[in-house]
Design brief:
Blueprint (H helix, E strand, L loop, with lengths): L9 H25 L1 H30 L4 H19 L1 H30 L5 H20 L5 H31 L1
Length: 181
C-alpha cells in the first residue's frame, strides 16, 4: 500500500483525507442504520450493476481470447442474466444476497468455532468463541425470517459496517495527526 521509504507528507495527507472519508462513511452508516430498507436496495442495486459489468467483461474477454469457449460464454450469460433479474426484480436480489450473507455468517461461525477450540488452552480463545457465537446468531437471524428479514438485515449490517469503518478512519486520522506533530 505504501511505498518505502515513506514520504513525509503521506501521514498528513492520510490524516486529512481519512477524516473526510470517515465523516462520509459515518453519515452513510447512519442512513443504513436509520433506513435499512433503503440501504438494502442500494446495496443490491450496486451488486447487480457490478455483476452486469462483470458479465460484459467476461463476454468481451471470451470473445477476444477464444470465441468457442462455451464455459466463458456461459459465465458471461449467467452473470448478465442474474444481474438483470436483480435489477428488474429487486426483491429476488434481496433474498439472494440475504441467503448468501447467511451462508457467509454460518461459514464464519464454523471457522471461528474451529479456531477457538484449537486454541482452547491459550489466552484469547474466548474472543474467537464469542465471535463464532455472534456470527452464528447473525446467520440464524437471516435464515429465520428469510427472505423477508433480508430486506432490513442487509441494510442494517451494511450501515453498521460503514459506521464503524468511518469511526476507524477518524481515529486513525487523529493518530496520524499526532504522529506528525
Amino acid at each position: 500500500m505504501w511505498k518505502y521509504p515513506v514520504e513525509e507528507d503521506l501521514f498528513e495527507k492520510f490524516s486529512k483525507y481519512s477524516k473526510i472519508a470517515g465523516i462520509i462513511f459515518i453519515l452513510l452508516g447512519l442512513v443504513g442504520i436509520i433506513y435499512p430498507t433503503f440501504m438494502t436496495m442500494a446495496t443490491v442495486t450496486f451488486v447487480a450493476w457490478l455483476m452486469m459489468f462483470s458479465g460484459f467483461m467476461a463476454g468481451y474477454f471470451t470473445y477476444i481470447t477464444d470465441k468457442r469457449d462455451i464455459a466463458g460464454w456461459l459465465k458471461s450469460f449467467v452473470l448478465i442474466g442474474v444481474s438483470a433479474l436483480m435489477i428488474f426484480y429487486p426483491m429476488t436480489g434481496v433474498g439472494t444476497v440475504g441467503l448468501l450473507l447467511a451462508i457467509y455468517f454460518f461459514m464464519d461461525s464454523f471457522a471461528g468455532f474451529s479456531l477457538a477450540f484449537s486454541m482452547r488452552p491459550a489466552s484469547g480463545w474466548i474472543m474467537w468463541l464469542i465471535n463464532a457465537i455472534l456470527s452464528m446468531l447473525i446467520g440464524v437471524l437471516f435464515i429465520v425470517g428469510w427472505p423477508f428479514s433480508s430486506l432490513y438485515l442487509i441494510g442494517l449490517l451494511v450501515g453498521f459496517s460503514l459506521f464503524f469503518d468511518g469511526i476507524s478512519l477518524l481515529v486513525t486520522g487523529s493518530i496520524f495527526k499526532k504522529m506528525i506533530k
